[in-house]
Amino acid sequence: MNDVHFSLPRWIFALIGAAALSLAVATPAQAQLGEATALFLRIEPDSRSAGMGNAGVAVADDANAMFWNPAGLGFQRNTQVGVTHANWLPEFDAGLFYEYLVGTYHVEGVGTFGGNVTFLNLGTTERRGGDGQNLGETSSYELAMGVSYARQVSDRLSFGTNLRYIYSKLTDPTSQLGIDDGSASTVAFDLGGLYRSDAFSLGGADATLSTGLNIANMGGTMKYDVQEQALPMNMRVGYAFTIDFDEYNSLTFANDFNKSLVNNELEEVPQGDTTTTRLSPDPFYESLFSSWGTNRGRRGPDGNFESLSLIEQFTLGTGLEYWYSDLFALRTGYFYEHPDNGGREFLNFGAGLRYNIVGVDISYIYTLERDSPLANTLRFSLLFEFQ
């Protein structure tokens, strides 16, 4: 289902905020926006999976499969339309919001097509010159428009892909700040596969096992003025195990592992009479292999670049979903991220209702770290499904 309320972890908020601020000062060549940019592409527009610890690559059975695993569209035959509106991090009162529109349509004998539009408003930023003079305000936003296609290649296997255009505007060109262009754009694509087993007997109940793989955000880089950065390419792999106890009761256990596929190399660049060190991203086709090791991603408090080990680059999401008669659902989940890679850790609780063509879902986040901006986040979702 599609979120109608949504929040984002503080490390992503900080990175995007740093991106906007770094382009609003007079030293853009030294600005560090993190190991990747366009991080809004990692926002999960799905309250259902959010109630299951952000696990969805092997579930992927509605229009939101475009995010989790486009191959999931191949098993879908009904038309679906969803709309999302969310105040983004409302407790910061920064006037930020997130919009999401998604839809799917199946063509018999051809496959399932989909489309989505994602818009993240980053509010306005006041710009000041080196002498403190007010240079006015600039608006910032990020936009992605995508199309999807998936097809079953057998009764149990489907493959799918997404293609999207990405545009990011962080600031207006400002000669007083030496900023020639505060916007960037590129294209990217995803590739996914999903396998669903035949039903098999387990203790008198029917069970099925699904496994999924999705590699997302493969494409070009984003170049803001003189700063070039990679897209947040990542690999998501996982499974979902469903037990149908009888015609009314079913239980699904899902588990996702997510790995960043971004790799940056240090390079020296001239700056006046001296040189400075900055990160240069590998092309996506190289990062598919070079990212499997220690990765530099950001500057530490001492100004030097810090690195993440391979284990630190993984996140874990695990969840449970109980359905009664395909009408009412209860969910719970757990999400973990290493403290050096954002430190998100929380429990999820959720519920869902299905009536006629309308589905409604709600999820709640209970954070396990102190002073988290995600604490007590409620999410609501709507999705319309037509036969």
Characterise this structure.
There is one protein chain. By secondary structure, this protein is mostly beta strands. It has a single domain, classed as monomeric porin ompg (Porin, Beta Barrel), CATH 2.40.160.40. 7% of the residues lie in helices and 54% in strands. The protein is built from 4 helices and 22 strands. The strands form 4 sheets. A 14-stranded antiparallel beta barrel has the order 2-3-4-5-6-7-9-12-13-18-19-20-21-22. A two-stranded antiparallel sheet has the order 10-11. The chain is globular and about 75 Å long. The N terminus is likely disordered.
Summarize the structure.
The chain is mainly beta and 387 residues long.
Q: Which tags fit this structure?
A:
single chain; 387 residues; mainly beta; Porin; 4 helices
